[in-house]
Structure of ABC transporter ATP-binding protein:
Amino acid sequence: MATVSFDKATRIYPGSEKPAVDSLNIEIEDGEFLVLVGPSGCGKSTSLRMLAGLEDVNAGAIRIGDRDVTHLPPKDRDIAMVFQNYALYPHMTVADNMGFALKIAGVPKAEIRKKVEDAAKILDLTEYLGRKPKALSGGQRQRVAMGRAIVREPQVFLMDEPLSNLDAKLRVSTRTQIASLQRRLGITTVYVTHDQVEAMTMGDRVAVLKDGLLQQVDSPRNMYDRPANLFVAGFIGSPAMNLVEVPITDGGVKFGNSVVPVNRDALKAASDKGDTTVTVGVRPEHFDVVEHGAADSLSKDSDAAPAGLAVSVNVVEELGADGYVYGTAQVGGETKDLVVRVGGRQVPEKGTKLHVVPRAGETHVFATSSGERLTD
Ligand SMILES: Nc1ncnc2c1ncn2[C@@H]1O[C@H](COP(=O)(O)OP(=O)(O)OP(=O)(O)O)[C@@H](O)[C@H]1O
Ligand SMILES: [Mg+2]
């Protein structure tokens, strides 16, 4: 077991000027499960491959424990990698696939057999040890690939989208198995996925990458509660956080007929930068519904317009326990799309209007120009 550190690690592919991974700094603790997540092409696989020794590091360093492995060949790094396509040998049995690396390393046969059997027990593969990979289901093949990594007892596991070939249901159950297996073995793990739900459910910490640049490394909770910038705010969470640009007014921001109080320091920081607007983020579950009715009845019958922001309900997704309302609202003179979570028993009809108010203390404020977070 060991710590892993990326120390300003940079990869520039030949023929390219822009780094695929740019000065990556992450300190991974001994035994930690760290997930690298981000959109396609952001540099996740490149980062993992640099750690594996499959990709040159053009600047900076990579350390495993106190060893500088930046220029070591893969075989000397004491890591085991699980790939998306599993890369099993088709002509070998499950047992031989799992034990192959040990055989190459000259480990005695009886010892290999013991390690393979132990791993098979953990992974529920005992009855398949004599089979060839083609006679296994996708999920079983995935477990064989895991078994091959486990028997080597490496200092670090590296996994690049190991669940992407599985169907949705199997993916959910396998991600729980991998996470609990990792906790049991306590082996430092770096796991790559483009799926933010996978990242949030599996990782002790999550690192979000965009265009080769690290945006934030944090626990799933902090990543959700305090996204460091607009990119992370929009990327983490499903459905995504509502982000609306609003003019800075004294002491708050106007949401329809309500003024949502916003930390003065945040607004001052924005105007000090020369911004005249801020971007306010509200997660779908952080709106309170203050009134609900038919599209035309609410607005005309009273002098006092209802509080909050009027959202026209366009689409309703009923999920049982709760529901998501996809609607539009006038914010700052523009029509904005918004998503509001409602209780499963209070789902509004399409074509009606909901009046919502962002819950106090649950709004996020970002600088419109730089995207950085302004609230604590
Ligand atoms: N061998 C290569 N030569 C040149 N450019 C490459 C090479 N491999 C990757 N790239 C580029 O480097 C960038 C990062 O690629 P990388 O494979 O690390 O992305 P990723 O985050 O793993 O994406 P995905 O989610 O699609 O797997 C991309 O712009 C890609 O086009
Ligand atoms: Mg990749």
Q: What stands out?
A: Residues 84 and 265 are 46 Å apart (CA to CA). Residues 239-367 form one domain. Residues 44-45 surround magnesium ion (ligand 2) (CB under 6 Å).
